[in-house]
Amino acid sequence: MRYLFFLPFSMVMKKVRTLAKRYLWALGLLGWLLFLTGCGIEKTDPGKLRDLEFTLVDDSQIPEELKPLIEEKKAAEFKMTFDTGEFRYIAVGYGAQKTGGYSIMVEALYETQNAIYIKTNLMGPAKGETVTEVESYPYVVIKTEFLDKSVVFE
Questions:
Q1: Are strands 115-123 and 150-153 parallel, antiparallel or unpaired?
Q2: Residue 143, SS3?
Q3: DSSP element (H, E) containing 5
Q4: Could you tell me the pTM of the whole model?
């Protein structure tokens, strides 16, 4: 008699376990499907389309509207763009340096599907080079064609 009493309970528990397993499998499968579809994330650099031509701009050729902005920000590092409609000016500054003799190299300027990328590098004075012991504010301004894309500074 005792055996018959436990038999229905064990069968019920077996069905509950089977249903629980199926439920967990369904939840897991649903989770994976949601994970795989995910939110649409836009890549900012799907690959270089082309290198952009540019000109290093001398202080005398910087647009008058841009000059005061550079003067205001040159004591600290800065990155900015200025558009005239026909051209885009990209300015990168490295803040106050204790001496002179610094230069800035534009390593890359290229267009991708979604943006324009620029990479610059501050180069210090060479060993043994005579430098002025006056604080300097190295920055570079380049001029390139206007493209209606955001600029990413690397």
A1: parallel
A2: strand
A3: helix 2-37
A4: 0.69
